[in-house]
Design a protein that fits this description.
cell membrane; 445 residues; mainly alpha; 17 helices; transmembrane helix; MATE_MdtK; disordered C terminus; globular; ion transport
Length: 445
């Protein structure tokens, strides 16, 4: 298969996924932009709530993307669409109990905020925002589930179209609920959470309508149960990895929160800006995981190296360009969210530093996705956790303990991307070399 043909396949998946993720981020940025008009305490509460939300849905996201997504892509590559539909049924069976478990945290949201060194005011505001999101998170879970399924089957345009349809709805309800316009009650950050839930439930409704109208295979729940073991086998290592990452990341955020309030708010803004930069990388990583899994299912081993190489090149071009802008004009990005000069300065510092590390971050996305597509899930998860502690958690703790400037903590985060990329590129190449040698010996034998 030629590089041009592979590039077309990659972009067919990556561009709609990236645009859908960008619209997801736009929904978050709309919340932050509107909440930023209320004050820095509200902005910090929403930013922290979004981090906590990412942690809570990260379990489901990794379980579906790594477990269900790999299975669906492999079965689609092997032309076993009925089995792929049954895997979707298995993912539905997992979503509801996880949601019910998550709601048990609602009474303890304020305590959770305080655990990460926020002020009492931020904790009270966070209880309003994050508590509301958790209560309606079943729609967020189902949105993640259905997005994963359609991308894994190769239909990545549908999630993008659905998100476009719901984005305007989110803007309208934020406008109504946050500020109390058009006769609606002014609910502040709780209104932002309600706007997100309404828009996401609209996404889910559209997905279900498409399934009802276009599905040629009926989900067989009895067979769906047989796929639960495979979903969990592939997905649980990534769940553990993600859970460890989120807990560790929250610890790092608590260290940043121990600095000046402007540093905490600035980091929340900077992290959101960075999230825009790595959206193309997430899109190309989704393409890499899908295509590698599909080639494994179709027994097309020779295309695996090519698709990973081409995906890595495209990712470097995309993320390198955006990262360059981040490094050159960070203040322009930061000033979109706040007028407070001290917050802009701290946000710009993080944006500039992390902008220089976007290319290695993109390579890390692609090669870890390809490794998971190969089925190297458990060891990839273990390596990521070890690297996280060695490269970020421990050095950050030392920096905070010594009372060094927050810029050193930001620098450690950026350098970790470089080290991680080198490790996973090396592992992928070693596994592929071993696979080729095994194939050669098998042919000789």
């Amino acid at each position: 298969m030629t590089s041009q043909s592979l590039s077309k396949q990659i972009l067919t998946i990556a561009i709609p996924v990236s645009l859908k993720l960008f619209l997801d981020m736009a929904m978050i940025l709309i919340d932050l932009f509107m909440i930023g008009q209320l004050g820095s305490a509200e902005l910090t509460a929403v930013g922290m709530g979004l981090v906590l939300l990412a942690g809570s849905i990260g379990v489901l996201d990794n379980l579906f993307a790594t477990g269900g997504g790999i299975l669906v892509a492999r079965l689609t590559g092997a032309k076993r669409e009925q089995c792929a539909a049954n895997v979707l049924g298995g993912m539905f069976l997992i979503a509801l109990p996880l949601y019910l478990i998550g709601t048990l945290a609602i009474p303890f949201v304020a305590d959770l905020y305080l655990l990460f060194h926020t002020t009492a005011e931020v904790a009270v505001l966070g209880d309003l925002y994050f508590g509301t999101l958790v209560a309606g998170s079943i729609f967020i879970y189902l949105d993640v589930l259905l997005f994963t399924y359609f991308v894994s089957t190769g239909n990545s345009k549908l999630p993008m179209k659905i998100k476009i349809a719901s984005l305007g709805l989110n803007v309208v309800f934020n406008y109504l609920f946050i500020f109390g316009n058009a006769g609606a009650p002014a609910m502040g950050i709780k209104g932002a959470a309600l706007g997100t839930i309404v828009a996401t439930s609209f996404n889910v409704a559209l997905y279900l309508i498409v399934i009802k109208q276009s599905f040629t295979h009926v989900i067989q729940l009895r067979h769906s149960l047989t796929h639960l073991k495979d979903i969990l086998k592939l997905g649980v290592p990534s769940v553990v990895e993600n859970f460890t990452f989120q807990i560790s990341w929250l610890f790092i955020i608590s260290l940043i929160n121990s600095y000046a309030a402007s540093a905490a708010a600035g980091f929340q803004i900077g992290y959101r800006v960075e999230s825009i930069a790595f959206l193309p990388g997430l899109g190309t990583a989704a393409a890499a995981a899908t295509l590698v899994s599909r080639f494994v299912g179709a027994n097309r081993s020779r295309d695996i190296d090519s698709v990973t190489s081409v995906t890595a090149t495209l990712t470097c071009l995309f993320m390198g360009g955006v990262g360059g802008l981040m490094a050159i004009i960070p203040e322009s990005f930061a000033s979109l969210f706040t007028n407070e000069l001290s917050v802009i300065n701290d946000a710009a510092t993080y944006i500039r530093i992390i902008g220089l590390a976007q290319i290695p971050l993109g390579l890390q996305f692609v090669y870890t996705a390809s490794l998971r597509g190969l089925g190297d899930v458990s060891k990839t998860a273990i390596i990521k956790v070890v690297l996280l502690w060695l490269n970020i958690v421990i050095p950050s703790s030392v920096i905070a303990h010594l009372g060094l400037d927050v810029i050193w903590l930001f620098t450690v985060i950026a350098l970790a991307n470089v080290i991680d990329a080198a490790v996973f590129i090396t592992r992928f190449k070693r596994l592929r070399a071993q696979s080729k040698m095994a194939t050669m010996y098998s042919a000789v034998g």
